[in-house]
């Protein structure tokens, strides 16, 4: 049903390739993701997601109906990631994700708290890629890498206007190597959580 609902969405509501990526994400045993600028959808609170969608509506990027679809779609996607047994989720967030204010202090406090709770789960790894790593940051665009039970790979990368789905495992390997390099430059999970706690405490 989740797949059917994903495919029923208007094509303008999501970037090309993303519905197929999410359908495959629901079958992966490992999920690796990197984002910059905003917290990734899989880790967003609904209030944070609504604030992001509302901003797109105010800019005229999408209509209110599409914004509502995106938020509802996000909720279904997150539910699929809470399946049993859950996938192992590696999340590396650029520091800009946790420093950029979205939705006001109350929304941000809830979102930062959700990230702290996410890091405490037994099947997750959360790291912050500090701004100080500069040109050593492996990616300049959001990247998602899936590993399946047979160890095959799939990746999805996106810009503001385009999504690209790579289904060939051999072609995904360089991105996986770059992801490992990114993790080596990122803060440890303990240091990442400490930074997020500090930012939450500094909110007005």
Total number of helical segments? 8
Report the sheet with the most strands, covering strand number, pairing sense and barrel closure.
6 strands, mixed
The overall average pLDDT, rounded, is 91
Number of strands: 6
Number of domains: 1
Strand arrangement in the largest pleated sheet: 3-2-1-4-5-6
User: Uncertain segments of ≥5 residues (pLDDT<50)?
Assistant: 1-12
- CATH hierarchy, class: Alpha Beta
Radius of gyration: 16 Å
What class would the helix/strand composition place it in? alpha/beta
Q: Which percent range fits the helix content? A: 40-55%
Level-2 CATH architecture: 2-Layer Sandwich
Q: Give the topology string: H per helix, E per strand.
A: HHEHHEHHEEEEHH
According to CATH, the fold-level topology is Endonuclease, Chain A
Strand content bin: 15-25%
User: Distance between the terminal alpha carbons, to the nearest Å?
Assistant: 42 Å
Molecular shape = globular
